[in-house]
TrEMBL record:
Domain YjeF N-terminal: 18-224
Binding site residues for AMP: K406, G407, S408, G409, T410, G435
The EC number(s) this enzyme carries: 4.2.1.136, 5.1.99.6
Species of provenance: Variovorax defluvii
InterPro entries, per the entry: Carbohydrate_kinase_pred_CS (IPR017953), CARKD (IPR000631), Nnr (IPR030677), Ribokinase-like (IPR029056), YjeF_N_dom (IPR004443), YjeF_N_dom_sf (IPR036652)
Keyword set includes Phosphoprotein: no
Name used for this protein in its record: Bifunctional NAD(P)H-hydrate repair enzyme
Length: 484
């Protein structure tokens, strides 16, 4: 069993892939062995979380997720704990593994109750796992809301019940409204057999909490991955015999009147991200040609940039004015990061879309937030958020570019490659300008010579990790994030 952290590199398997792995593993093992391993893993983690627990409420559902809970109940009872099991479902329809575990729990003397105990020191959510087919309702919904509103830690078995393993969409939102979050009890999830993408994106991170993994000693074999966790980037090795030209030139094009700050943030981030030289080409011609707090930045007119030598970060604070420059930028830039207003302009113009797709082969990274992604796909934000992996992959395929779909569990996708899901970052990043900082950081990584997917995930990982390291009592600003 291992704790999953930001530094964990691991394959992720969606529902179908996880089921294939489970079937292959079960075929080589004695009957019920996998569920016994699952129950033991759950019991071990439960004992570590609440070693002095007097009452452990285990809420079991009608399928094999419930079976894992029953197996854990038997294990805990045998170790001197006092689990109380409440169950939903019809005994005659229990799958064989779960039925065997029900018998073991009964044989061990586990207490079964019709209603949850009035007080529990730990709760195990074994209601639904991979088989969640619709939103929990009735008694199941009541129990889920009750366990997540209470003071006891909640350990979800395999998945928080109702969380879609593929998308991270939560069919019953049992999370307290954001303003009440300081009162949340500890939340944990022990993912079994495989790690699932939905745990890392959408509502998955909030629903799961602290994440643990046990592979039940089963190998994924040759089942294709659905996505990956990247692990921590290895810092770039700067050789002594290098110079500023070795780390590439970034030019930021953006900053229409009233929005100069966005371009300045991106340029600052590119500089602090290690670019050899950074140019700032504001769209507001009235701007002074110097940023006094950032004298390293060199100001140029957009038309004077030698695009074919540059990594261009385009769009930050670009407003409407960016549209007229896009044909040149798309056609000429050696490497390109398209953000914000540049993405909106592309979304509104089919000629620009064709030009963007025509860059295939030249490094290109698009950094939409969900609304920008929705505009590019011609759909709505809710549809994008309902399946972030699919939205990012579809955009990457459509435009032949690397796509960074921002938000909790940022997705990095590229044509015909397994997507990455970024595990770092938090809601302190929900402040104006942090996206501009990310675009600048990706620009610096591209300019240093990383291929686009690597440049993107490394910058996204680092950007999120900076927010996690930021002291809890100090608000994070985009300017500070750019200078970390
Ligand atoms: N076999 C093994 O050895 C191992 C199995 N493992 C474990 O098995 C889990 C997968 O088990 P599973 O396939 O039985 O699915 P599960 O999540 O229990 O749910 C299916 C049941 O729920 C029902 N149902 C669905 N939605 C509902 C709703 N909203 N409200 C009410 N009911 C609802 C659905 O009914 P139906 O849709 O048919 O009406 C069906 O009865 C996996 O996540 C892992 O924990 C692993 O530990 C490895 C070892
Ligand atoms: N709740 C959150 N959890 C993790 N990352 C977040 C969260 N909110 C925002 N971010 C990150 O902050 C950045 C915001 O970018 P964006 O929406 O473009 O903002 P802006 O346009 O103000 O710069 C993205 O990298 C996004 O992934
Ligand atoms: K569960």
């Amino acid at each position: 069993m291992q704790r999953i952290t930001a530094a964990t590199a691991a394959p992720l398997f969606g529902t179908d892939a996880s089921r294939r792995i489970e079937q292959a593993a079960a075929a080589t093992l004695p009957p019920h062995a996998l569920m016994q391993r699952a129950g033991l893993a759950v019991a071990r983690l439960a004992m570590a979380v609440a070693p002095n627990a007097r009452t452990i409420w285990i809420a079991c559902g009608p399928g094999n997720n419930g079976g894992d809970g029953l197996e854990a109940a038997a294990q805990l009872q045998g170790r001197g704990f006092a689990p109380v099991v409440t169950r939903i479902g019809d005994d005659t329809r229990l799958p064989p593994d779960a039925r065997a575990s029900l018998q073991r729990a009964r044989d061990a003397g586990v207490r079964f109750a019709d209603a949850p105990p009035a007080h529990a020191d730990l709760v195990l959510d074994a209601l639904l796992g991979l088989g969640a087919a619709r939103a929990p309702g009735g008694l199941m919904a009541d129990w889920l809301r009750r366990m997540h509103a209470g003071p006891a830690p909640v350990l979800s078995i395999d998945l928080p019940s109702g969380l879609n393993a593929d998308t991270g969409a939560l069919s019953l939102n049992f999370l307290a409204p954001a303003a009440h979050r300081t009162q949340d009890a500890r939340r944990l999830c022990l993912s079994l057999l495989t790690l699932k993408p939905g745990l890392f994106t959408g509502q998955g991170r909030d629903a799961a909490g602290e994440l643990w993994f046990d592979d039940l000693a089963a190998s994924p074999g040759d089942v294709p991955l659905t996505a990956r966790l990247p692990g921590a980037p290895v810092p770039m090795n700067r050789r002594h015999a290098t110079h500023k030209g070795s780390y590439g030139d970034v030019a930021v094009v953006g900053g229409a009147p009233g929005m100069a700050g966005a371009a300045l943030l991106a340029a600052t981030a590119a500089l602090h991200g290690g670019a050899g030289r950074v140019y700032l080409a504001p769209l507001d011609a009235a701007l002074p040609a110097l940023a006094p707090t950032q004298p390293e930045l060199m100001f140029r007119r957009p038309a004077a940039l030698p695009l074919e030598d540059l990594t261009v970060v385009c769009g930050c604070g670009g407003g409407e004015a960016i549209r007229d420059l896009l044909p040149q930028v798309l056609g000429g830039s050696r490497a390109l990061v398209l953000d914000a207003d540049a993405l909106n302009a592309v979304a509104a113009d089919e000629a620009l879309q064709r030009q963007l797709a025509g860059r295939a082969g030249r490094p290109t990274v698009l950094t939409p937030h969900p609304l920008e992604a929705a505009r590019l796909l011609g759909t709505g934000t809710a549809e994008v958020q309902a399946d972030r992996l699919r939205a990012a992959t579809e955009l990457a395929q459509r435009f032949g570019a690397t796509v960074v779909l921002k938000g909790s569990g940022t997705i990095v996708a590229a044509p015909n490659q397994t997507p990455w899901i970024n595990p770092t970052g938090n809601a302190r990043l929900a402040t104006a300008g942090t996206g501009d900082v990310l675009a600048g950081m990706i620009g610096a990584a591209l300019a240093a010579g990383h291929e686009p997917m690597t440049a993107a995930w490394q910058a996204v990982w680092t950007h999120g990790e900076r927010a996690e390291r930021w002291p809890a009592h100090r608000p994070l600003t985009a300017g500070a994030l750019a200078r970390c």
